[in-house]
């Protein structure tokens, strides 16, 4: 039985929660959904299209630096129709130019999983080549083999670094060291199917020329 006092207390808590939620600032990624299709997005330097692997879901919000993010569950959970309690975080980031260079970015990723920066050259040398459906080429690094056996390093990264010409695209899967390798094949397929098209600035140039 719910007493009048308990009901009033619950109502007050709900109203307070609603007020707190409304007062919090909202964050928006700098992307534009193309026709409401979650598989087509436009960033500041290009248009992206992809096919999500089975079980992957789009993250509703994320780091403002990201174009978008996904949750990638263990494929075995997906086959069973179960929710993965520790899905891998997959992100797409696009930066202008070489974004500081290949070695600098691999070193940055190594630091995110507490691996020594001295492994950067080794990771690059052992990286596998990758090519998107629209011809961008790059490498895929996998830090899992470099993790210590004592399990003090709990997370791993498998990520692709793609040369977009005048920009660099990063597709990074990061999560529990036991989970990241399980989504590797899906990540590679995702990158191979990824379509990256530079923004068409010809129309803007034409408008500027016509206004002279």
- Compressed to H and E, one letter per element, the order equals HEEEEEHEHHEEEEHEH
* Percentage of residues in strands: 25-35%
Query: In terms of quaternary structure, what is this?
Result: single chain
Largest sheet: 7 strands, antiparallel
Query: How are the strands of the largest sheet arranged?
Result: 4-5-6-10-9-8-7
Range of helix content: 25-40%
Task: Supply the CATH class.
Answer: Mainly Beta
What topology does this entry show?
Blueprint: H1 4-23, E1 32-34, E2 37-42, E3 46-49, E4 57-58, E5 68-72, H2 75-80, E6 88-96, H3 102-112, H4 120-125, E7 128-131, E8 137-142, E9 155-163, E10 167-176, H5 184-193, E11 195-198, H6 202-210
Antiparallel strand pairs: 1-2, 2-3, 3-11, 4-5, 5-6, 6-10, 7-8, 8-9, 9-10
Which features would summarize this protein structure in a list?
Jelly Rolls; four-stranded antiparallel sheet; 6 helices; alpha+beta; disordered C terminus; 212 residues; seven-stranded antiparallel sheet
How would you characterize the overall build of this protein?
- With 212 residues, this protein is α+β, with helices and mostly antiparallel strands.
- The chain has one domain (32-199): Sandwich (Jelly Rolls).
- Helix content is 29%, strand content 29%.
- It has six helices and eleven strands.
- The protein has helices at 4-23, 75-80, 102-112, 120-125, 184-193, 202-210; strands at 32-34, 37-42, 46-49, 57-58, 68-72, 88-96, 128-131, 137-142, 155-163, 167-176, 195-198.
- The strands form two sheets. The chain has a seven-stranded antiparallel β-sheet.
- Strand 9 (155-163) and strand 10 (167-176) form a beta hairpin.
- The longest helix is centred in the first third of the chain and has 20 residues, at 4-23.
- The radius of gyration is 21 Å and the shape is globular.
């Amino acid at each position: 039985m719910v007493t009048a006092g308990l009901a009033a207390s619950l109502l007050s808590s709900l109203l307070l929660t609603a007020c707190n939620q409304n007062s919090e600032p909202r964050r928006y990624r700098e992307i534009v959904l193309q026709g409401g299709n979650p598989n087509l997005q436009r960033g500041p330097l290009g248009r992206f299209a992809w096919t999500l692997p089975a079980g992957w879901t789009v993250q509703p919000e994320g780091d403002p630096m990201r174009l978008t993010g996904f949750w990638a569950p263990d494929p075995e959970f997906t086959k069973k129709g179960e929710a993965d309690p520790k899905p891998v975080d997959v992100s797409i980031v696009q930066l202008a130019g070489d974004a500081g260079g290949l070695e600098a970015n691999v070193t940055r990723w190594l630091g995110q999983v507490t691996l020594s920066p001295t492994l950067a050259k080794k990771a690059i040398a052992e990286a596998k080549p990758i090519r998107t459906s629209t011809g961008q080429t790059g490498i895929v690094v996998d830090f899992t083999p470099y993790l210590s056996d004592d399990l003090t390093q709990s997370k791993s990264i498998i990520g692709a670094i793609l040369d977009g010409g005048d920009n660099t695209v990063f597709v990074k899967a990061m999560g529990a060291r036991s989970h990241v390798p399980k989504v590797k094949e899906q990540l590679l397929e995702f990158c191979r199917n990824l379509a990256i098209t530079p923004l068409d600035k010809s129309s803007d140039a034409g408008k500027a020329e016509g206004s002279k």
